[in-house]
Write a structure and sequence with these properties.
alpha+beta; 2 domains; five-stranded antiparallel sheet; three-stranded antiparallel sheet; 20% helix; elongated
Amino acid sequence: METVMHEGKAYKKVERHAKEGDKFVLYTGGSALLTGGKIYEIKRFDYAGDPQIIDDDGDEYDLCTSAYYSVLEPVESSGTITVLSVTPPTEKTYTLVVSDSFLAKAAEALAKAGNDALSELITEIRQQ
């Protein structure tokens, strides 16, 4: 499952035709009016059930085939750490989503273990 962050929320990419209730699509096609890799908000669905988005020129655009986009479905928060992105294998970079309560517990555990410097760093991060 590939996870995408958009407007501070996590979504999973799903390869299917958009349907009523879906909010966002990730465009993967090659139209001159849309940007590949950009997330577009679904404005409405037409009579055929196709999602309508606003293109880069500000006009309504009909996404009549799902071959050129992925639907973004919200990921439910489970309170666990979620890996959001990984770069090439030579140097891995992870983006983690953790709750404030998790950070508080981590800082407390590090302080008890005698790692005051790391505990203080986590406390500073929480205050930002």
